[in-house]
């Protein structure tokens, strides 16, 4: 995994270095924009199981959950753009007497290639910080910290307008509880809506 990410990071650096030269040849009006978005991901391993009083179970998965994010984007030229954002994602199982939540703060760096004015492909890296499993009520004993994680992102986005896009993405990442050898897949498929302003 580390070797694959190293190759990916080196390739991204070479791509962005090459794009800088291209960007000097072509300019875009108002290339800088702010980004805000939200969506939901599904997938990953089960990190916690809660049991209701009727015997039914709720699963908290490492790849599930609502995600919100804010950041900035820069259009290098007609074909390429880059984006950086910071977000919050959590997966929760709750009941009247307790709650289990797996949460993290992802930082993402992405590069985009425009197929045309409506469609673009994106790829990049995701750095998850402050990864935790927390519990409250009858689940208050479930409090674990996880190591920071690095993952990869691939996505396709449909730009309904230049100011609004809908994207389908795949994320590959894994999480390791601090002090333990076990790892949990956080791989997910997510649907996101993004506003550019």
Give a short overview.
With 197 residues, this protein is mostly beta strands. The protein has one helix and 13 strands.
Note down, in words, how this protein is organized:
This protein has one helix at 2-25; strands at residues 32-42, 46-51, 57-61, 65-75, 80-95, 98-114, 119-137, 144-146, 149-161, 164-172, 174-175, 184-185, 188-196. By secondary structure, the chain is mainly beta. The chain has one domain: Beta Barrel (Porin). It has an eight-stranded antiparallel β-barrel with strand order 1-4-5-6-7-9-10-13. A two-stranded antiparallel ribbon has the order 2-3. The protein has a two-stranded antiparallel sheet with strand order 11-12. It is elongated, with a radius of gyration of 19 Å. The model is unreliable at 1-25 (pLDDT under 50).
Key phrases:
62% strand; two-stranded antiparallel sheet; Porin; mainly beta; 197 residues; eight-stranded antiparallel beta barrel
Structural class: mainly beta
Which CATH top level class fits? Answer: Mainly Beta
| Total number of beta strands | 13
The main sheet orders its strands as 1-4-5-6-7-9-10-13
* Biggest pleated sheet: 8 strands, antiparallel, barrel
Tell me the span between the first and last alpha carbons.
36 Å
- Provide the gyration radius in Å: 19 Å
Number of helices: 1
Specify the helix fraction band.
10-25%
Specify the CATH architecture. Beta Barrel
Write the layout of secondary structure elements.
Elements: H1 2-25, E1 32-42, E2 46-51, E3 57-61, E4 65-75, E5 80-95, E6 98-114, E7 119-137, E8 144-146, E9 149-161, E10 164-172, E11 174-175, E12 184-185, E13 188-196
Antiparallel strand pairs: 1-4, 1-13, 2-3, 4-5, 5-6, 6-7, 7-8, 7-9, 9-10, 10-13, 11-12
């Amino acid at each position: 995994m580390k070797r694959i990410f190293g190759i990916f990071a080196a390739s991204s650096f070479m791509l962005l270095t090459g794009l800088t030269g291209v960007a000097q040849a072509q300019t875009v009006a108002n290339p800088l924009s702010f980004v805000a978005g939200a969506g939901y991901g599904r997938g990953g391993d089960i990190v916690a199981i809660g049991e209701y009083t009727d015997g039914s179970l709720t699963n908290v998965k490492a790849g599930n959950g609502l995600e919100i994010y804010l950041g900035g984007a820069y259009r290098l030229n007609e074909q390429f753009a880059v984006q950086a954002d910071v977000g919050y994602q959590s997966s929760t199982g709750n009941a009247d007497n307790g709650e289990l939540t797996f949460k993290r703060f992802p930082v993402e760096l992405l590069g985009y290639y425009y197929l045309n004015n409506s469609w673009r492909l994106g790829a990049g890296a995701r750095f998850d910080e402050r990864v935790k499993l927390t519990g409250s009520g009858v689940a208050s004993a479930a409090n674990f910290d996880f190591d920071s994680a690095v993952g990869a992102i691939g996505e396709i986005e449909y730009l309904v307008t230049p100011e609004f896009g809908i994207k389908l993405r795949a994320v590959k990442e894994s999480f390791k509880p601090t002090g333990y050898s076990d790892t949990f897949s956080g791989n997910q498929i997510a649907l996101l809506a993004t506003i550019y302003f």
